[in-house]
Amino acid sequence: SRSDLVGEKQWYQRRVRGGQHDNTTRLFDRMQDITAWKEKLEQTITDTDVEIALLTNHKERAETALQNMNNPFEVAQENLATRSIRVAIDLVEDEVSQELNKEVEVINGIKDKLKQKVNEAFQQVCALQDAYNAMCDDLADKMHCLDVDQQCHSLTNQSANIGFHQNSSRIAKDIVMPDAWDSHSNYNTQRANSEIRASTALREVINNTIEQTANDLEAQRLRTEYAFRKRIHEVQMAKDELEWQQSNTKREIDVLMDDIRGLKQAITDKNKPLEVAETRSENRTYRPRVELCRDVPHDGLINEKNELQKTVSSLVDKHNTAEDALNQLKQTLNRIEEDIAV
Predict the structure, then answer these.
(1) What is the mean pLDDT of the chain?
(2) How many whole angstroms separate alpha carbon 147 and alpha carbon 153?
(3) Cα–Cα distance between 149 and 130 in angstroms, integer?
(4) pLDDT tens-digit map of 82-137
(5) Is this structure's pTM higher than 0.85?
(6) Residue 23 and residue 156: Cα distance in Å, rounded?
(7) What's the rounded Cα separation, in Å, for the pair 237 and 335?
(8) How far apart are CA 149 and CA 27, in angstroms?
(9) CB distance 202 to 128 below 8 Å
(10) Separation of alpha carbons 17 and 300, rounded Å
């Protein structure tokens, strides 16, 4: 009957309106889900971007600290090279050399640690950037999807841009299920947060490494400086002692040279009396006949001559001994002056 047809028509109309309303609601709910992920992605992207900037700053600080190792390394190497030209007894493996070699070792160790942290920071920045790019791509897709669903949500029976589309309900071959869709964004954000946590921990390690290596270098610098001061004091004391010995030796040489001059003069002074005694003895040998008597003057002249010769011989021995002592003192003085020059 006609009333049955009208009722059936109204039932179908209510069913169509209900189906359209349900899908409009579903589209709204879907947009809410997309918007929630969009906001989470935006926040995580911002956090990741901030962390990239922070870690990059720490990486640059580590690079600067590494660069700053060049100067102390060159200074230590130059000090070692300079001290290698020491000569004779002063070319010794002393405490200064040991501390300088230790300083070179410490600096090389610091450089290795800082290089490692720079490399780790570079790798972590790359990991953060990869996570950042993945979220940006995900966000771009979410924005595009949200735009599509907003357009679909706004469509009504009165919209101008509606029409029939052949096979519009087809299922694309690369379509994903809701769980996979949700897992994709969840993976991207969790991955980014994991990299942020790793980056935060690495920044702390870099801070500690920079601080610890600076402390290690300063401690070694102080040890090296102390060894230098101690060695300089020791060398100065040795130099003062040598200069004191030099002064004393010069005074002894001067005194001994005066003695030698006195001995030479004493020997010279004995020549004339000896000549007189010998001349007297010689002349008295020409006394005639019985007058050539071994009288008191004869024996006295012989005794005088013998005494003078003994005296001269003793003076010559003393002179030779003094000359030997003088030569030894001059050799000692030469050694002292060589040590002072070194």
Answers:
(1) 86
(2) 10
(3) 28
(4) 767 666 666 666 777 888 889 999 999 999 999 999 999 999 999 999 999 999 99
(5) no
(6) 12
(7) 17
(8) 6
(9) no
(10) 171
Tokens of 288: 């005639």
Confidence of residue 6 (pLDDT cuts 50, 70, 90): low
How confident is the model over 30-55, as pLDDT tens digits? Answer: 889 889 999 999 999 999 999 999 99
The answer to whether the beta carbons of residues 81 and 100 sit under 8 Å apart is: no
Burial (Cβ within 10 Å: 0-12, 13-18, ≥19) of residue 207: middle
Question: How many other C-beta atoms are found inside a 10 Å radius of the C-beta of residue 110?
Answer: 24
What is residue 243's DSSP assignment? Answer: H
**The two three-digit tokens of residue 120, written as one number:** 């780790």
Tokens standing for residue 302: 């012989």
* C-alpha–C-alpha distance, residues 19 and 323, integer Å: 135
Query: What token pair was written down for 195?
Result: 């990299």
Task: Tell the residue number behind the tokens 């030469």, with chain if given.
Answer: 334
H or E segment at 324? helix 296-341
Contact 34, 149 (CB under 8 A): yes
Q: Considering only 103-112, 159-168, 256-265, which range has the smallest mean pLDDT?
A: 159-168
Q: Which two tokens stand for residue 304?
A: 């005088």
| Contact (CB, 8 A) for 223 and 99 | yes
Between CA 328 and CA 324 the distance in angstroms is: 6
